[in-house]
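Record filed here:
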Amino acid sequence: MTAKVAGIPMILCALGVFVGGTIWTIVYSFTNSKLLPKTQWVGFEQYERLWGENRWLTSIENLAIYGACSLILSFVIGFVLAALMDQKIRFENTFRTVMLYPFALSFIVTGLVWQWILNPEFGVQSIVRALGWTGFTFDPLYNADIVIYGILIAGLWQGTGFIMVLMLAGLRGIDQEIWKASRVDGIPMWKTYLFIVIPMMRPVFITTLVIIASGIVRVFDLVVAQTSGGPGIASEVPAKYVYDKMFLSQNLGQGFAASTMMLITVAIVIIPWAYLEFGGKKRG
């Protein structure tokens, strides 16, 4: 009882800050607020202007590309690394620490490091050309057509280790008798993973999906550190669009509208997850 009473201030604070702030943002997205919030209602005008702006559409396209690639590659690479690590290899703790270390860095640090690595003057391109391949070109951050993939490389480098740890925890939770039975029955390892182990790891996959998806929607630091949205607006993302509109362009109404669209995107991810996790358990 004492613990519940002690938790009341935290709950009230969370409701006031998060729920109250969310409602406030949605309400003022229907106003013509500029430098300061004001109740000059304009209906859906901010949303119409938002979806008619090329910069916002480019940010959505970039987020879709980054999100799809990040989701698929994070799952595949993370699971493969976890499966290899689950073979009780030597120096497992060392390898696990090395793989997880990038996740301890901030996105700003990661972005700056990969900005240097991908810089054509002294990064990968320069090193390879110095080895004799003078025609080699690798400058994704300076090519508007592939710049989002340069940001993706940095994101995967930082986050894949964390996904590997989550997958490894799920694999370590599998009963060892399943592996023994599959070996006795002569079932190939890949079939055991595909038809037995992966279905049993469904809760881990769902949790990992939510973590990755929420991070994708909020991607901001990597873009700012690596390209600042450039070249031009080629690497623009919704979170940076919101920041620029609210603090640089001093257009709060437009920023609130974009924030609300991001909130809807997160809700599309969170609500099905909550239903699958808690609704299914309740029915069970």
The chain is about 70% helix and 0% strand.
